[in-house]
Amino acid sequence: MNTYPKRWQALNFLIAGAFLSPLDYFIVNMALPSIKNAFKANDHQLQMVVAIYGLTYAALVVCGGRLGDLYGRKKIFTLGLYTFLFSSLACAFSPTVTWLIIARMFQGIGASLLAPQVLSSIKVLFNSQEQPKAVSLFSSVFGLASVVGQLLGGLLLSMHWGNFSWEMVFLVNVPITILCITGIHFTMDNNHKERNSGIDLKGSLLLIISLLMLIFPLIFGQKYHWALWLFGIILMGAFLLTIFLRYEMNLLKNNKPILVDPTLLQHKPFALCLLILFFYNFTAGLFICYPYYLQQFLHQTSIQTGLAIIPYGLAFFLGPLIVSKVKISPHKLIYIGLLLLMGGFIFTALNFHFQGKPSFISHLTLFMAGLGHGTIMPVMMRTAITFTTKEKAGQASGLVSIGMQIGSVTGGVVVGTLFFNLIDTFGFPEAFAFAIGLIGAIQIVGIWGNSKLGKYING
Protein backbone atom coordinates (compact mmCIF):
# COMPACT_ATOMS: atom_id res chain seq x y z
CA MET A 1 0.00 0.00 0.00
CA ASN A 2 1.33 3.44 -0.91
CA THR A 3 2.19 5.57 2.13
CA TYR A 4 1.03 8.77 0.41
CA PRO A 5 -2.78 8.53 0.25
CA LYS A 6 -3.18 12.05 -1.19
CA ARG A 7 -0.55 11.58 -3.89
CA TRP A 8 -2.96 12.00 -6.82
CA GLN A 9 -4.46 15.17 -5.34
CA ALA A 10 -0.94 16.50 -4.74
CA LEU A 11 0.01 15.66 -8.33
CA ASN A 12 -2.79 17.91 -9.61
CA PHE A 13 -1.28 20.92 -7.84
CA LEU A 14 2.28 19.95 -8.77
CA ILE A 15 1.24 19.81 -12.42
CA ALA A 16 -0.66 23.09 -12.18
CA GLY A 17 2.44 24.76 -10.72
CA ALA A 18 4.69 23.22 -13.37
CA PHE A 19 2.26 24.47 -16.02
CA LEU A 20 3.32 28.03 -15.20
CA SER A 21 6.88 27.56 -16.51
CA PRO A 22 6.07 26.77 -20.17
CA LEU A 23 2.94 28.94 -20.11
CA ASP A 24 4.99 32.05 -19.39
CA TYR A 25 7.29 31.28 -22.30
CA PHE A 26 4.45 31.09 -24.85
CA ILE A 27 2.14 33.75 -23.47
CA VAL A 28 4.79 36.47 -23.12
CA ASN A 29 5.83 36.05 -26.77
CA MET A 30 2.32 37.13 -27.74
CA ALA A 31 2.58 40.28 -25.61
CA LEU A 32 5.88 41.60 -26.99
CA PRO A 33 4.35 44.09 -29.48
CA SER A 34 2.22 45.61 -26.67
CA ILE A 35 5.22 45.75 -24.33
CA LYS A 36 7.24 47.46 -27.06
CA ASN A 37 4.58 50.14 -27.47
CA ALA A 38 4.05 50.62 -23.73
CA PHE A 39 7.74 51.20 -22.91
CA LYS A 40 9.01 52.34 -26.34
CA ALA A 41 11.39 49.41 -25.96
CA ASN A 42 13.98 48.49 -28.58
CA ASP A 43 14.44 45.00 -30.05
CA HIS A 44 17.33 44.20 -27.72
CA GLN A 45 15.22 44.97 -24.65
CA LEU A 46 12.37 42.85 -25.96
CA GLN A 47 14.80 40.01 -26.57
CA MET A 48 15.99 40.32 -22.97
CA VAL A 49 12.40 40.11 -21.69
CA VAL A 50 12.18 36.66 -23.28
CA ALA A 51 15.78 35.48 -22.94
CA ILE A 52 16.45 36.32 -19.29
CA TYR A 53 13.64 34.00 -18.21
CA GLY A 54 14.96 30.95 -20.08
CA LEU A 55 18.56 31.80 -19.26
CA THR A 56 17.94 31.98 -15.49
CA TYR A 57 15.75 28.89 -15.54
CA ALA A 58 18.33 26.75 -17.37
CA ALA A 59 21.24 27.90 -15.22
CA LEU A 60 19.53 27.28 -11.87
CA VAL A 61 17.31 24.25 -12.43
CA VAL A 62 19.87 21.69 -11.18
CA CYS A 63 20.33 23.78 -8.04
CA GLY A 64 16.55 23.75 -7.63
CA GLY A 65 16.50 19.97 -7.84
CA ARG A 66 19.31 19.65 -5.30
CA LEU A 67 17.55 21.99 -2.86
CA GLY A 68 14.50 19.72 -3.07
CA ASP A 69 16.66 16.71 -2.19
CA LEU A 70 18.13 18.52 0.81
CA TYR A 71 15.24 20.48 2.29
CA GLY A 72 12.19 18.61 1.05
CA ARG A 73 10.34 18.99 -2.22
CA LYS A 74 7.19 20.48 -0.71
CA LYS A 75 9.16 23.34 0.88
CA ILE A 76 11.13 24.15 -2.27
CA PHE A 77 8.09 23.83 -4.54
CA THR A 78 6.16 26.22 -2.27
CA LEU A 79 9.12 28.62 -2.26
CA GLY A 80 9.08 28.49 -6.07
CA LEU A 81 5.36 29.29 -6.11
CA TYR A 82 5.80 32.32 -3.85
CA THR A 83 8.75 33.51 -5.97
CA PHE A 84 6.67 33.13 -9.13
CA LEU A 85 3.69 34.90 -7.54
CA PHE A 86 5.54 38.02 -6.41
CA SER A 87 7.72 38.23 -9.53
CA SER A 88 4.58 38.02 -11.72
CA LEU A 89 3.10 40.93 -9.79
CA ALA A 90 6.38 42.82 -10.20
CA CYS A 91 6.25 42.16 -13.96
CA ALA A 92 2.65 43.37 -14.25
CA PHE A 93 3.32 46.62 -12.38
CA SER A 94 6.76 47.33 -13.86
CA PRO A 95 7.34 51.09 -14.25
CA THR A 96 10.12 50.59 -16.84
CA VAL A 97 11.28 47.90 -19.22
CA THR A 98 14.44 47.46 -17.13
CA TRP A 99 12.29 46.68 -14.10
CA LEU A 100 10.35 44.18 -16.23
CA ILE A 101 13.56 42.43 -17.31
CA ILE A 102 14.72 42.12 -13.68
CA ALA A 103 11.30 40.80 -12.62
CA ARG A 104 11.44 38.24 -15.45
CA MET A 105 14.77 37.05 -14.07
CA PHE A 106 13.08 36.33 -10.73
CA GLN A 107 10.31 34.50 -12.60
CA GLY A 108 13.05 32.29 -14.05
CA ILE A 109 14.35 31.64 -10.54
CA GLY A 110 10.85 30.62 -9.46
CA ALA A 111 10.52 28.30 -12.45
CA SER A 112 13.86 26.66 -11.64
CA LEU A 113 12.54 25.80 -8.16
CA LEU A 114 9.21 24.45 -9.46
CA ALA A 115 10.06 22.20 -12.39
CA PRO A 116 12.51 19.65 -10.89
CA GLN A 117 10.32 19.00 -7.84
CA VAL A 118 7.54 17.54 -9.98
CA LEU A 119 9.48 14.76 -11.69
CA SER A 120 11.44 13.89 -8.54
CA SER A 121 8.22 13.84 -6.46
CA ILE A 122 6.66 11.42 -8.95
CA LYS A 123 9.68 9.16 -8.44
CA VAL A 124 9.11 9.22 -4.67
CA LEU A 125 5.31 9.42 -4.28
CA PHE A 126 4.27 6.82 -6.85
CA ASN A 127 5.16 3.17 -7.27
CA SER A 128 6.55 1.79 -10.52
CA GLN A 129 3.09 0.80 -11.79
CA GLU A 130 1.67 4.29 -11.21
CA GLN A 131 4.64 6.30 -12.50
CA PRO A 132 3.84 5.99 -16.27
CA LYS A 133 0.40 7.56 -15.76
CA ALA A 134 1.77 10.27 -13.45
CA VAL A 135 4.60 11.21 -15.84
CA SER A 136 2.20 11.24 -18.80
CA LEU A 137 -0.13 13.65 -16.99
CA PHE A 138 2.85 15.87 -16.17
CA SER A 139 4.12 15.78 -19.76
CA SER A 140 0.72 16.73 -21.17
CA VAL A 141 0.94 20.20 -19.59
CA PHE A 142 3.71 21.20 -22.01
CA GLY A 143 1.43 20.59 -24.98
CA LEU A 144 -1.46 22.29 -23.21
CA ALA A 145 0.74 25.30 -22.41
CA SER A 146 1.68 25.70 -26.09
CA VAL A 147 -2.01 25.98 -27.01
CA VAL A 148 -3.24 27.92 -23.99
CA GLY A 149 -0.27 30.31 -24.06
CA GLN A 150 -0.87 31.33 -27.66
CA LEU A 151 -4.67 31.50 -27.43
CA LEU A 152 -4.91 33.02 -23.96
CA GLY A 153 -2.24 35.58 -24.82
CA GLY A 154 -4.10 36.62 -27.95
CA LEU A 155 -7.44 36.69 -26.10
CA LEU A 156 -6.18 38.74 -23.14
CA LEU A 157 -4.49 41.23 -25.44
CA SER A 158 -7.61 41.66 -27.57
CA MET A 159 -9.81 42.42 -24.58
CA HIS A 160 -9.85 45.60 -22.52
CA TRP A 161 -9.49 45.17 -18.75
CA GLY A 162 -9.61 48.74 -17.48
CA ASN A 163 -6.15 50.20 -17.95
CA PHE A 164 -4.53 46.77 -18.29
CA SER A 165 -3.37 45.25 -21.58
CA TRP A 166 -0.06 43.33 -21.65
CA GLU A 167 -0.09 43.28 -17.84
CA MET A 168 -2.79 40.61 -17.92
CA VAL A 169 -0.41 37.96 -19.27
CA PHE A 170 1.41 38.21 -15.94
CA LEU A 171 -1.59 38.76 -13.66
CA VAL A 172 -3.15 35.51 -14.91
CA ASN A 173 -0.40 33.70 -12.92
CA VAL A 174 -1.68 35.09 -9.62
CA PRO A 175 -4.81 32.93 -9.10
CA ILE A 176 -2.97 29.80 -10.31
CA THR A 177 -0.10 30.24 -7.83
CA ILE A 178 -2.45 31.00 -4.92
CA LEU A 179 -4.50 27.89 -5.74
CA CYS A 180 -1.36 25.74 -5.89
CA ILE A 181 0.08 27.12 -2.64
CA THR A 182 -3.16 26.28 -0.83
CA GLY A 183 -3.54 22.86 -2.45
CA ILE A 184 0.04 21.72 -1.86
CA HIS A 185 -0.21 22.73 1.81
CA PHE A 186 -3.05 20.27 2.42
CA THR A 187 -2.14 17.38 0.11
CA MET A 188 1.64 16.89 0.03
CA ASP A 189 4.24 15.74 2.55
CA ASN A 190 7.74 17.19 2.53
CA ASN A 191 8.75 13.87 1.01
CA HIS A 192 11.97 11.98 1.57
CA LYS A 193 14.25 14.71 2.75
CA GLU A 194 17.80 13.35 2.86
CA ARG A 195 20.23 14.18 5.63
CA ASN A 196 21.17 17.82 5.16
CA SER A 197 24.89 17.67 4.53
CA GLY A 198 25.10 21.23 3.24
CA ILE A 199 25.10 22.85 -0.18
CA ASP A 200 28.03 22.75 -2.57
CA LEU A 201 28.31 26.52 -3.05
CA LYS A 202 31.50 26.45 -5.14
CA GLY A 203 30.06 23.77 -7.39
CA SER A 204 26.82 25.73 -7.73
CA LEU A 205 28.70 28.85 -8.77
CA LEU A 206 30.85 26.92 -11.26
CA LEU A 207 27.81 25.26 -12.84
CA ILE A 208 25.78 28.48 -13.08
CA ILE A 209 28.65 30.43 -14.67
CA SER A 210 29.49 27.65 -17.13
CA LEU A 211 25.85 27.26 -18.22
CA LEU A 212 25.42 31.01 -18.61
CA MET A 213 28.55 31.12 -20.78
CA LEU A 214 27.21 28.29 -22.93
CA ILE A 215 23.69 29.67 -23.33
CA PHE A 216 24.27 33.45 -23.53
CA PRO A 217 26.11 33.35 -26.90
CA LEU A 218 23.39 31.12 -28.37
CA ILE A 219 20.68 33.61 -27.44
CA PHE A 220 22.53 36.75 -28.55
CA GLY A 221 24.61 35.31 -31.39
CA GLN A 222 22.46 36.76 -34.14
CA LYS A 223 22.37 40.19 -32.50
CA TYR A 224 26.20 40.35 -32.51
CA HIS A 225 26.52 38.67 -35.94
CA TRP A 226 28.23 35.61 -34.45
CA ALA A 227 31.42 37.47 -33.61
CA LEU A 228 34.46 35.34 -32.74
CA TRP A 229 34.37 36.44 -29.10
CA LEU A 230 31.01 34.67 -28.73
CA PHE A 231 32.62 31.36 -29.67
CA GLY A 232 35.38 32.14 -27.18
CA ILE A 233 32.75 32.45 -24.45
CA ILE A 234 31.24 29.08 -25.48
CA LEU A 235 34.65 27.40 -25.32
CA MET A 236 35.32 28.93 -21.92
CA GLY A 237 31.92 27.72 -20.72
CA ALA A 238 32.70 24.18 -21.90
CA PHE A 239 36.07 24.37 -20.13
CA LEU A 240 34.45 25.51 -16.87
CA LEU A 241 31.86 22.73 -17.18
CA THR A 242 34.70 20.19 -17.40
CA ILE A 243 36.30 21.73 -14.30
CA PHE A 244 32.93 21.52 -12.52
CA LEU A 245 32.57 17.79 -13.26
CA ARG A 246 36.12 17.07 -12.07
CA TYR A 247 35.50 19.16 -8.95
CA GLU A 248 32.32 17.22 -8.18
CA MET A 249 34.11 13.90 -8.71
CA ASN A 250 36.79 14.96 -6.26
CA LEU A 251 34.16 15.92 -3.67
CA LEU A 252 32.42 12.58 -4.15
CA LYS A 253 35.66 10.67 -3.57
CA ASN A 254 36.21 12.61 -0.34
CA ASN A 255 32.61 12.10 0.88
CA LYS A 256 31.84 15.83 0.78
CA PRO A 257 28.52 17.50 -0.19
CA ILE A 258 27.98 17.59 -3.96
CA LEU A 259 25.59 19.43 -6.25
CA VAL A 260 25.44 16.84 -9.03
CA ASP A 261 26.58 13.25 -8.76
CA PRO A 262 28.95 12.96 -11.76
CA THR A 263 28.31 9.21 -11.89
CA LEU A 264 24.86 10.08 -13.26
CA LEU A 265 26.46 11.54 -16.39
CA GLN A 266 28.91 8.64 -16.59
CA HIS A 267 26.00 6.20 -16.55
CA LYS A 268 25.62 5.52 -20.29
CA PRO A 269 21.84 4.92 -20.46
CA PHE A 270 21.11 8.14 -18.54
CA ALA A 271 23.52 10.07 -20.78
CA LEU A 272 21.79 8.63 -23.88
CA CYS A 273 18.45 9.79 -22.50
CA LEU A 274 19.83 13.33 -22.18
CA LEU A 275 21.09 13.16 -25.78
CA ILE A 276 17.65 12.22 -27.10
CA LEU A 277 15.99 14.86 -24.89
CA PHE A 278 18.35 17.52 -26.19
CA PHE A 279 17.70 16.95 -29.89
CA TYR A 280 13.95 16.43 -29.82
CA ASN A 281 13.62 19.79 -28.07
CA PHE A 282 14.83 21.44 -31.28
CA THR A 283 11.06 21.61 -31.83
CA ALA A 284 11.24 24.98 -30.04
CA GLY A 285 12.30 26.38 -33.41
CA LEU A 286 8.73 25.91 -34.66
CA PHE A 287 7.39 28.42 -32.12
CA ILE A 288 9.93 31.02 -33.24
CA CYS A 289 9.53 30.63 -37.01
CA TYR A 290 5.84 29.78 -37.44
CA PRO A 291 4.27 32.83 -35.69
CA TYR A 292 6.73 35.15 -37.47
CA TYR A 293 5.94 33.54 -40.84
CA LEU A 294 2.19 33.79 -40.33
CA GLN A 295 2.22 37.40 -39.14
CA GLN A 296 4.98 38.89 -41.32
CA PHE A 297 4.45 36.99 -44.57
CA LEU A 298 0.76 36.05 -44.47
CA HIS A 299 -0.25 39.08 -42.34
CA GLN A 300 -2.38 37.08 -39.91
CA THR A 301 -3.58 38.47 -36.56
CA SER A 302 -2.39 37.27 -33.14
CA ILE A 303 -5.62 35.30 -32.69
CA GLN A 304 -5.22 33.62 -36.10
CA THR A 305 -1.61 32.82 -35.26
CA GLY A 306 -2.66 31.27 -31.96
CA LEU A 307 -5.29 29.15 -33.71
CA ALA A 308 -2.75 27.94 -36.28
CA ILE A 309 -0.67 26.17 -33.63
CA ILE A 310 -3.67 24.24 -32.23
CA PRO A 311 -3.14 21.05 -34.31
CA TYR A 312 0.41 20.68 -32.98
CA GLY A 313 -0.44 21.69 -29.42
CA LEU A 314 -3.57 19.53 -29.23
CA ALA A 315 -1.68 16.44 -30.39
CA PHE A 316 1.18 17.33 -28.01
CA PHE A 317 -1.39 17.38 -25.19
CA LEU A 318 -3.10 14.12 -26.24
CA GLY A 319 0.13 12.16 -26.87
CA PRO A 320 1.09 11.65 -23.20
CA LEU A 321 -2.47 10.67 -22.30
CA ILE A 322 -2.52 8.04 -25.07
CA VAL A 323 0.92 6.72 -24.12
CA SER A 324 -0.23 6.04 -20.56
CA LYS A 325 -2.89 3.67 -21.91
CA VAL A 326 -0.89 1.62 -24.42
CA LYS A 327 1.08 -1.52 -23.60
CA ILE A 328 4.19 -1.02 -25.74
CA SER A 329 7.78 -1.15 -24.50
CA PRO A 330 9.53 2.21 -23.87
CA HIS A 331 12.15 1.36 -26.51
CA LYS A 332 9.50 0.95 -29.22
CA LEU A 333 7.54 4.01 -28.04
CA ILE A 334 10.66 6.16 -28.38
CA TYR A 335 11.07 4.97 -31.96
CA ILE A 336 7.40 5.67 -32.70
CA GLY A 337 7.60 9.17 -31.18
CA LEU A 338 10.78 10.09 -33.06
CA LEU A 339 9.47 8.77 -36.38
CA LEU A 340 6.20 10.68 -35.97
CA LEU A 341 8.17 13.81 -35.07
CA MET A 342 10.55 13.40 -38.01
CA GLY A 343 7.84 12.60 -40.53
CA GLY A 344 5.51 15.35 -39.30
CA PHE A 345 8.10 18.09 -39.69
CA ILE A 346 9.48 16.86 -43.02
CA PHE A 347 5.97 16.57 -44.53
CA THR A 348 5.10 20.02 -43.14
CA ALA A 349 8.23 21.42 -44.80
CA LEU A 350 7.22 19.85 -48.12
CA ASN A 351 3.72 21.32 -47.83
CA PHE A 352 5.04 24.86 -47.34
CA HIS A 353 7.60 24.35 -50.10
CA PHE A 354 4.82 23.64 -52.60
CA GLN A 355 1.91 25.70 -51.22
CA GLY A 356 3.45 28.46 -49.12
CA LYS A 357 0.56 28.64 -46.67
CA PRO A 358 -1.24 26.49 -44.09
CA SER A 359 -3.68 23.92 -45.46
CA PHE A 360 -5.65 20.93 -44.26
CA ILE A 361 -2.63 18.78 -45.09
CA SER A 362 -0.25 20.97 -43.06
CA HIS A 363 -2.66 20.82 -40.11
CA LEU A 364 -2.52 17.03 -40.32
CA THR A 365 1.27 16.93 -40.59
CA LEU A 366 1.66 19.33 -37.65
CA PHE A 367 -0.77 17.15 -35.69
CA MET A 368 1.47 14.19 -36.57
CA ALA A 369 4.57 16.04 -35.34
CA GLY A 370 2.81 17.14 -32.14
CA LEU A 371 1.70 13.57 -31.48
CA GLY A 372 5.31 12.45 -31.84
CA HIS A 373 6.42 15.13 -29.39
CA GLY A 374 3.70 14.16 -26.94
CA THR A 375 4.57 10.48 -27.29
CA ILE A 376 8.29 10.76 -26.70
CA MET A 377 8.34 13.31 -23.87
CA PRO A 378 6.75 11.20 -21.07
CA VAL A 379 8.57 8.05 -22.19
CA MET A 380 11.95 9.81 -22.10
CA MET A 381 11.25 11.45 -18.73
CA ARG A 382 10.13 8.15 -17.25
CA THR A 383 13.02 6.22 -18.78
CA ALA A 384 15.60 8.74 -17.55
CA ILE A 385 14.47 8.64 -13.91
CA THR A 386 14.31 4.83 -13.87
CA PHE A 387 18.11 4.84 -14.06
CA THR A 388 18.37 6.80 -10.78
CA THR A 389 17.69 6.15 -7.12
CA LYS A 390 15.13 8.09 -5.07
CA GLU A 391 17.99 9.90 -3.32
CA LYS A 392 19.27 11.22 -6.66
CA ALA A 393 15.85 11.95 -8.13
CA GLY A 394 16.15 15.72 -7.68
CA GLN A 395 19.57 15.88 -9.34
CA ALA A 396 18.42 13.65 -12.21
CA SER A 397 15.26 15.74 -12.69
CA GLY A 398 17.36 18.89 -12.79
CA LEU A 399 19.67 17.40 -15.42
CA VAL A 400 16.66 16.32 -17.50
CA SER A 401 15.26 19.86 -17.27
CA ILE A 402 18.64 21.32 -18.28
CA GLY A 403 18.86 18.97 -21.26
CA MET A 404 15.40 20.01 -22.40
CA GLN A 405 15.99 23.72 -21.82
CA ILE A 406 19.39 23.87 -23.54
CA GLY A 407 17.95 21.79 -26.38
CA SER A 408 15.14 24.32 -26.74
CA VAL A 409 17.54 27.28 -26.69
CA THR A 410 19.98 25.64 -29.11
CA GLY A 411 17.20 24.46 -31.41
CA GLY A 412 15.57 27.88 -31.38
CA VAL A 413 18.86 29.53 -32.27
CA VAL A 414 19.91 27.06 -34.98
CA VAL A 415 16.48 26.81 -36.62
CA GLY A 416 15.70 30.51 -36.17
CA THR A 417 19.07 31.65 -37.53
CA LEU A 418 18.69 29.41 -40.58
CA PHE A 419 15.18 30.74 -41.18
CA PHE A 420 16.02 34.44 -40.89
CA ASN A 421 19.23 34.15 -42.93
CA LEU A 422 17.50 32.33 -45.80
CA ILE A 423 14.55 34.72 -46.11
CA ASP A 424 16.43 37.31 -48.20
CA THR A 425 17.99 34.66 -50.43
CA PHE A 426 15.12 32.22 -51.03
CA GLY A 427 12.02 34.01 -49.74
CA PHE A 428 9.70 33.22 -46.85
CA PRO A 429 8.19 29.86 -47.96
CA GLU A 430 11.51 28.26 -48.86
CA ALA A 431 13.24 29.59 -45.73
CA PHE A 432 10.45 28.24 -43.54
CA ALA A 433 10.48 24.87 -45.32
CA PHE A 434 14.27 24.53 -44.83
CA ALA A 435 14.04 25.47 -41.14
CA ILE A 436 11.16 23.13 -40.33
CA GLY A 437 12.71 20.32 -42.37
CA LEU A 438 15.86 20.62 -40.25
CA ILE A 439 13.85 19.93 -37.06
CA GLY A 440 12.67 16.67 -38.61
CA ALA A 441 16.06 15.65 -40.03
CA ILE A 442 17.94 16.22 -36.76
CA GLN A 443 15.82 13.53 -35.07
CA ILE A 444 18.02 10.93 -36.77
CA VAL A 445 20.46 11.55 -33.90
CA GLY A 446 17.76 10.54 -31.41
CA ILE A 447 16.97 7.41 -33.42
CA TRP A 448 20.65 6.47 -33.27
CA GLY A 449 20.69 7.14 -29.52
CA ASN A 450 17.63 4.96 -28.99
CA SER A 451 19.29 2.11 -30.89
CA LYS A 452 22.09 2.22 -28.30
CA LEU A 453 19.63 2.67 -25.41
CA GLY A 454 17.70 -0.47 -26.34
CA LYS A 455 20.09 -2.83 -24.55
CA TYR A 456 19.44 -1.06 -21.23
CA ILE A 457 15.64 -0.99 -21.28
CA ASN A 458 13.01 -3.60 -21.95
CA GLY A 459 12.60 -3.90 -25.67
TrEMBL record:
The residues covered by the Major facilitator superfamily (MFS) profile domain are 10-452
Where does the protein end up? Membrane
Naming one, the record's GO cellular component terms include:
membrane
Q: Does the keyword Disulfide bond apply?
A: no
**What sections of the protein cross the membrane?**
12-32, 44-67, 79-102, 108-126, 138-162, 168-187, 199-220, 226-249, 270-293, 305-323, 335-354, 360-379, 399-419, 431-449
Task: Quote the Pfam families the UniProt record gives.
Answer: MFS_1 (PF07690)
Q: Which GO terms describe its molecular function?
A: transmembrane transporter activity
Q: Which UniProt keywords apply?
A: Membrane, Transmembrane, Transmembrane helix
- Asked whether the UniProt record includes Cell wall biogenesis/degradation among its keywords, one would answer no
Q: What is this protein called?
A: Predicted arabinose efflux permease, MFS family
Report how it sits in the membrane.
Multi-pass membrane protein
InterPro entries given for it? MFS, MFS_dom, MFS_trans_sf
